[in-house]
Design a protein that fits this description.
Helix content: over 70%
Number of strands: 0
Distance between the termini: 52 Å
Strand content: under 5%
Shape: globular
Radius of gyration: 20 Å
Largest sheet: none
Mean pLDDT: 91
Order of helices and strands: HHHHHHHHHHHHHHH
Length: 317
């Protein structure tokens, strides 16, 4: 596919849109495979091509393709700790998305609202993040999209819960994330919606379990949080085997589980989990330093998050 696009100069914006879309998918696959630097390069190459078209040369398809790959690139920048750049890139994506996405792509726009909210939340702009989360959830609730897109409702609700937790409304955050986890569990039952393959939902369900555990710990239910985190830990072991780029999520799960088990007095579990995290980080530093660096950044982001600072101070850990 790449040879096809590089065998001749790209002077047509429609062909450029196809080129960008291919690189967008490629970047996502590279990220899952644990090659974030190559993923960023793929995005940068495609974005540079898209920016070379101006005025009447720019087709709607090109604008949409650029909006999509900028959202992908923004997530990669965020994971790399380049938060201001991630926000700037996401603002460009959001502006184009609001102008050019068609109604059939409503839940896709909701996902971009979710992604932007995550960045704003990290930058301390909680009110703006909450507004975007609310917009995303409302879009998904009102959408008539079927099939795999149904999974985007709990996906947006999970992010909304995380933002509510940062706003210090722990009880509301818990109620919100409970809805997301219940929806995911319904999707896990093929009789409920056979059009949604569970392998698509499994990684984002694991992420939702981590948020669920955060909310449970914040409201004092340490045993419930332990159950959620051990379920997430089991899922991440299989997920990371096939998608090493998800290791940072697994590291975050282990870190929270260590905090949880230490508070519960489960000393053998604390040692097992802490040893697992240290050993896997050390091994990843040897075999894939890019993924190891992402994991260290994710852990730093977690531990300095205001809700986590409050939680760990209240638990004395």
């Amino acid at each position: 596919m790449f040879e096809l696009f590089t065998s001749f100069p790209i002077t047509d914006s429609g062909i450029a849109a196809d080129y960008i879309s291919v690189h967008d998918s490629y970047a996502g696959n590279l990220q899952d495979l644990g090659r974030p630097v190559d993923a960023m390069r793929a995005c940068e190459k495609a974005i540079d091509l898209g920016k070379s078209f101006t005025g009447d040369e720019v087709a709607k398809e090109l604008v949409s393709a650029l909006a999509s790959i900028r959202a992908t690139y923004s997530a990669l920048l965020y994971n790399s700790g380049r938060y201001a750049e991630a926000n700037e890139m996401m603002e460009l994506s959001m502006k184009a998305s609001r102008e050019y996405l068609v109604p059939a792509e409503d839940t896709l726009f909701a996902c971009r609202c979710r992604s932007h909210a995550i960045i704003l939340r990290h930058l301390g702009r909680i009110d703006e993040a909450l507004k975007l989360n609310e917009e995303a959830v409302a879009i998904c609730r009102n959408s008539t999209s079927k099939g795999i897109f149904v999974a985007r409702l709990p996906y947006t609700i999970e992010s909304h819960a995380a933002s509510i937790l940062e706003s210090k409304d722990n009880e509301k955050a818990l109620t919100t994330i409970q809805e997301a986890t219940e929806l995911y569990r319904k999707l896990r039952d093929e009789d409920y919606n056979p059009m949604v393959p569970w392998h698509y939902c499994e990684p984002i369900y694991a992420e939702a379990l981590v948020v669920f555990a955060n909310c449970l710990m914040a409201t004092g239910d340490l045993k419930g949080a332990y159950e959620a985190l051990t379920e997430a830990e089991t899922l991440f072991r299989d997920i990371v085997t096939n998608r090493p780029g998800r290791f940072a999520d697994q590291a975050v799960c282990w870190d929270l589980l260590a905090v949880n088990t230490r508070t519960l007095g489960l000393h053998a579990e604390v040692k097992r989990i802490s040893d697992d995290l240290v050993e896997r980080l050390r091994a990843m530093e040897i075999f894939n330093s890019e993924v190891a660096l992402l994991a260290h950044r994710a852990l730093d982001e977690l531990r300095t998050r205001p809700s986590q600072v409050r939680l760990r101070a209240s638990l004395g850990v």
